[in-house]
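Please fill in the sequence for the structure shown.

STRUCTURE ENCODING:
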């Protein structure tokens, strides 16, 4: 820093400092600045809280200075508004106030002072991107889009205005085919960022909690480090199977609902999780489907605490049965549950095979399309992807509880059961 620049800095007022702090060129990391080489698609793969939203918003803000029509696409319209526009790092809250756009909610449109226009779209409705044309686009959380291939295809066909229409994509990665294919294109530039890279703007308590919870796990590598994790050798579940089981419609009326419980051997902060899965069944026999409704697994609590959690879920979901594995603890599990509420119908099951062997027929049900996830269950899905492989860390308690639930629901009244009751 030269003398003139140092003197300039020393004479800045507090308002001047605030203005400089808000000026992206002074504060952005290298991975948050557009590539200097020629590109049509710039992808920022990042962990949670790494600054992806701010990166996308700042790029759009700069593009709005020179282009006329901009597309903003999120997993749904609520995310588009709450994150891309109104979030702390959204377009309505960054940059100099006089340059910020105003939002016309009735038209889902942004209007910049210079006349540039931005339009909000939901990836749940790919056909809404047919027809409109744009100079630039920002695609946020692409890997959470319901129909990534169709929405991306329509978006790219609409990027046809100006000399160089460009797309910036900000997302926590998943190895979905649409992302892999886009990353391999010659005109695509890929940057990566970790949650820790943005530590100056994140709560130390949040960073500590994330590291304690996900550090060293595959889910942590994906959600915190922004890595794309490919299928494991000899895994029963693949990413394609997990993506295919995501259910995007209203849950139908279910014939039966169970709460499946895989208790830990010990209690305390460092104990295994108590796997608690809520699942239901629609239909009978070989056409029946299992719906995985909730993963309520907890760690580091007493037997009374996880028993109460399971009982509360039983009542909230109006379940028919509470299914409990009793390899460890035997009748103690039933005793704990019975002491809290003796009216809860408990069915105990005992494992006679390894976890992977018990999971094999359940993985087959997934391949047949007979199991669907009613929500994105990331921690559970991460365990399924590594169950029985060299990448498995710790006991797969969530996955084990799911295996009991699905086996119980889909082998009654049709196929012979694979579990033995005590």
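FILLED IN BY: designer on duty
SEQUENCE:
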């Amino acid at each position: 820093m030269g003398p003139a620049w140092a003197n300039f800095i020393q004479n800045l007022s507090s308002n001047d400092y605030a203005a400089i702090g808000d000026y992206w060129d002074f504060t952005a990391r290298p991975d948050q600045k557009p590539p200097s080489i020629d590109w049509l698609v710039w992808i920022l793969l990042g962990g949670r809280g790494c600054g992806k939203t701010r990166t996308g918003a700042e790029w759009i803000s700069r593009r709005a200075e020179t282009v006329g029509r901009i597309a903003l696409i999120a997993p749904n319209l609520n995310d588009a508004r709450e994150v891309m526009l109104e979030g702390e790092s959204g377009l309505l809250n960054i940059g100099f106030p006089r340059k910020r756009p105003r939002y016309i909610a009735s038209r889902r449109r942004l209007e910049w002072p210079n006349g540039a226009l931005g339009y909000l779209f939901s990836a749940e409705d790919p056909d809404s991107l047919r027809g409109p044309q744009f100079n630039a686009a920002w695609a946020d959380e692409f890997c959470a889009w319901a129909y990534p291939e169709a929405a991306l295809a329509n978006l790219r066909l609409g990027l046809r205005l100006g000399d160089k229409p460009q797309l910036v994509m900000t997302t926590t990665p998943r190895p979905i085919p649409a992302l892999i294919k886009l990353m391999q294109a010659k005109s695509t530039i890929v940057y990566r960022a970790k949650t820790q890279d943005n530590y100056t703007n994140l709560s130390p308590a949040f960073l500590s909690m994330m590291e304690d919870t996900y550090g060293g796990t595959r889910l942590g590598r994906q959600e915190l480090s922004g890595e794309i994790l490919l299928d494991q050798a000899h895994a029963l579940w693949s990413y394609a199977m997990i993506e295919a089981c995501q259910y995007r419609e209203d849950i139908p009326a279910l014939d039966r609902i169970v709460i499946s419980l895989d208790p830990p051997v010990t209690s305390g902060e460092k104990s295994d999780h108590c796997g608690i899965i809520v699942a239901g069944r629609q239909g009978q026999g070989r056409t029946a489907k299992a719906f995985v409704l909730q993963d309520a697994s907890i760690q580091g609590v007493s037997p009374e605490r996880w028993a109460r959690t399971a009982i509360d879920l039983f009542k909230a979901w109006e379940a028919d049965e509470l299914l409990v594995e009793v390899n460890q603890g035997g009748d103690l599990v039933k005793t704990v549950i019975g002491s809290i509420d003796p009216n809860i119908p408990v069915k105990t099951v005992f494992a006679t095979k390894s976890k992977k062997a018990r999971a094999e027929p359940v993985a087959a049900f997934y391949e047949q399309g007979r199991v669907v996830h009613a929500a994105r269950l990331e921690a559970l899905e991460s365990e399924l992807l590594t169950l029985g492989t060299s990448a498995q860390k710790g006991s797969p308690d969530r996955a084990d509880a799911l295996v009991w639930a699905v086996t119980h629901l889909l082998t009654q009244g049709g196929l012979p059961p694979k579990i033995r009751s005590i």
